[in-house]
Amino acid sequence: MPDKKCILIFSRYPKANDKIEGYFSRVLKVDRLLRNFRLIYVERVQRSERFLPKLEIVDLDVLRLEIQTSHPLHLGYFIYLILRYRRIYCHSLFNASTLLNWVFKIPGIKSIWDVHGAVPEELKMEGETDRAKYYEILEARLLRSAEKIIVVSEAMQQHLLKKHQALKFAHKFILLPILPDLPEEKTKVSGYNPNFPRFIYAGGTQVWQNIDRMSDFILRTCNQAQFQIFVPDTKTLPIALLQEASQNPRLKITSTTHREVLEAYRLSDFGFLLRDDEIVNRVACPTKLIEYLAYGVVPVVLSAEIGDFKKFGYMTIPFDKNDFSIYLPEPKSLELAIEKNKKIVNSLREIALQAEGELCQFFQ
């Protein structure tokens, strides 16, 4: 019986306690696409006490391999797998290395680098300048050595080609937007009232989410609108916001299941997406934004320059901390905005479907 074709995937395989959002949502999406192959997830560790690499089964035809590439036997086994299976998928620069860049150059190796986000720019924003410089160099090398490069937006492709003056590599790119697996959208609950709109936020509380700005806005306007806030850990929200929620029925704050969040979208008119005009946002394809558009929630934005959505003509309302009412549409205009945004999601699904076929065909 012939050996089943195998792909080495450079990423940690998500564990039971991992939140399946953002990065791991992408990993599992690709995992499902490639289930006609045997998949070996390669995770590099800094130090291992094991004489041989740790290899364990995590699912049918899915294995997890832990290697310490500075260990001679681990490195030897790693090279053996590379030369035997000759198919590599690397999720994000964070899972790449100088060694992997060298492997990508071996003749006959089918290699894909899935970019995910703008890693060097993210690190610069976090003040990690040395790591940013390292990954910037590695980014330029992978751009040249990877056979195919997957991006979530055309804006990311243009960013990389312009940044590294590498227009001749444009043919390598596959555009595969991040589209979460969503249940079929139920009919939206009517009841929009421009004089008392319904806002929602569903996401994390990282600094770049601008939670403080959203909180200030809610505290000033919580008697003029209804707000629902869904976060993984409510304790990370500003104390003043939590205090207001404890005494104001118009403000609901909770940590709940994803399914309940999707249900809450049906009762919402507008959703906060307060991203600054930074390169990490201009090239992104936020899962939360896809959900908003799919479920008829019009985004409230600081900057409309998010991924390819402005190019598609998505409908938003600008964030105004002083007087949001001047931007609220009439009911008919809101219906048209919702309809247009849903068409954009359908267009992205068509793009993703074509890219998924190209991805699977590449590894045959």
Provide the gyration radius in Å: 22 Å
- The class by helix and strand makeup works out as alpha/beta
> How many domains in all?
2
- Per CATH, the architecture of the largest domain is 3-Layer(aba) Sandwich
The biggest sheet, with number of strands, parallel, antiparallel or mixed sense and barrel status, is: 8 strands, mixed
Would you give an account of this structure?
The chain has helices at 23-33, 72-85, 98-104, 119-125, 129-145, 154-163, 211-221, 239-247, 258-265, 279-282, 287-294, 309-312, 331-362, and strands spanning 6-10, 38-44, 54-59, 62-67, 87-91, 110-114, 148-151, 173-175, 198-202, 226-230, 251-254, 270-273, 298-301, 317-318. By secondary structure, it is of the alpha/beta class. It folds into 2 domains: 6-178 and 351-362, Rossmann fold; 198-348, Rossmann fold (3-Layer(aba) Sandwich). The chain has an 8-stranded mixed sheet with strand order 3-4-2-1-5-6-7-8, sandwiched between helices. Helix 6 (154-163) links the parallel strand 7 (148-151) and strand 8 (173-175). It is elongated and about 65 Å long. It starts with 5 loop residues before the first strand and ends with a helix.
